Amino acid sequence: MSKLIPLTGDQAVAEAMRQINPDVVPAYPITPQTEIVMAFSQFVADGLVDTEMITVESEHSAMSACVGASAAGARAMTATSANGLALMWEIVYIAASTRLPIVMPVVNRALSGPINIHCDHSDTMGTRDSGWLQMYCENAQEVYESTIIAMRIAEHPEILLPIMVCQDGFITSHAVEGVKLFDDKIVKDFIGEYKPTFPLLNVKKPVTYGPLDLQDYYFEHKRQQSDAIEKSKKIIPQIAKEFKNISGKDYGFIEEYKTEDAEIAIVALSSTCGTAKVAVDRLRERGVKAGLLKIRFFRPFSAEEIAASLSKLKAVAILDRSESFSNHGGPVFAEVRSALYELQSRPLVTNYIYGLGGRDMDISQIDLIYQDLAKAVEENKVKNLINYLGVRD
Amino acid sequence: MKEKGWKSIPIGGLITEAGNAQEYNTGSWRTFKPVIDKSKCINCLQCWIYCPDSSIKVKDGKMDGFDYDHCKGCGICARICPVKCIKMEKE
Q: Which end of chain A is less crowded, N or C, counting CB atoms within 10 A of the terminal residue's CB?
C-alpha cells in the first residue's frame, strides 16, 4: 500500500478503474453513480488512461457497447444504478449468456417508483437471476479492492462471466473515508494482460457471436452458465489468496464477525455490516454472545459455507434491503433459509426487511433485532417470520 | 446431425467455424416446394438474385434446379419469375 487518501466510494471505484485502465468504458450518468463517471472521464481527459470513453445516450446503449467491445476482445467496464440498470436489463442477460467478462460497479439505489434516489438493493437483487456474479461491499476500501479482484474473477478462462461490484448509494458512494490505494504497478501486475479467447477482431479465426439458439441448444448453453458459476466457487478462493499476498486481507465468500462462540447473529450485505459490527462489539461488552455473518458474494451463492457458519447458532436474523413481494421474505432470506434446510439441526430464523428507499439503519435498530433474537432463543420460537423494520404503521 | 452435450460445445452460443449454417437442414421447414418447368425458363437468373437462402443452383450460367436441403419454400422465386415457370407445390 502506498498511500492513504480521503475518497468517497464512487471515487474509490474511479481510482480502481484508472489503475485497471480498461480499453473501453461506455457510460451514462445516473445518481448516485454519477461521480464514478465524472471522476473517470476526468482521468480520460487528463490522459491518465488509454481508455476509449463512449458517452452513450442511454444505459441500454452503455451495456450494448460493453457487449460489442468485450466481444471484440477489449477489457470493458461501465457503471450504473437503479433505473439505469433497469434500462440495460435486456443486455445485462445477453452479456452473461454470451460469457463476456464485463466488470460493472453498481451503486445500489431504490428502483422507481415512487421515484427515489437513495439506497436499497432492489436494483441488483432484480438481476439476481441474470447470470452475473455479484459482490456486495461494506465500505469504500472494500469497493476499491473488490473492483480490482472482480476483474481477475470475470476474466478467468474457466469463469468468463460478467460481475457487478455493489456499494450502497450515498451511504458508501458519497461518504468520505480514508482509502489505501495500491501502487499502480501492483494493480497492473495483479490483473495482468487480458487474453480474450474468441476476439471478434481476430480475422484469422472468424467467430459468430449471438446467433439464434432454439430448442436444440439454448438449454445446453444455460447449463454451461450454471457450471461456470459452480467453477467460480473453486477459482475465487485461489484469486483471493493471490490478492491476500498483496493486501494481507481475506476476500472470502462470507466474512464471519465474532461468530465463533455466538448464539445469535445477523446476516447482512454491504454497509449495514459496518453498523452491525459496532452493535456486536457493544453487545459483547455486555456479555451478549452476538455475531454477524456478512455475505460478500451473493453470486456465486456459497450455500454450503453459509449453512456451516450458521449451523452453530441458536437464532439468526436475515436482513434484506429489498422486498421480493413473495410476502415470504426478501431474496437474501429465501436463499439463506433454503441453504439451512439440509442441516440436521437448524437455528431459528427470521427475516427483517429494512432500509427501503434509503431509510436509515442505525445501531439502535440493530440492537432491537438482537433483542428479538435473544427473546426467540428464550422462548424457542420467533415472534414473526417476516418483519418490516423501521416502517411506520 | 447428432446433437452435442453442454460439455462439448463452445460457450456463450458462439459459432467458431465459419459457414457452418450449411450443416443445418432448413429444407425440413418447407410446406410448399418450388418446381421449375425448364422448357419455359429463359435463364434470366432473377430467382438466383432474389432467393434469400442461396438455394437456386446455377451451372454454366444457367438455372439448374433447387437446393432442397436448404430451400424453406418461401415462394419468392415463383413470384419474381418473369415467365412464371416456377410453381409452388404442396410437399
A: C
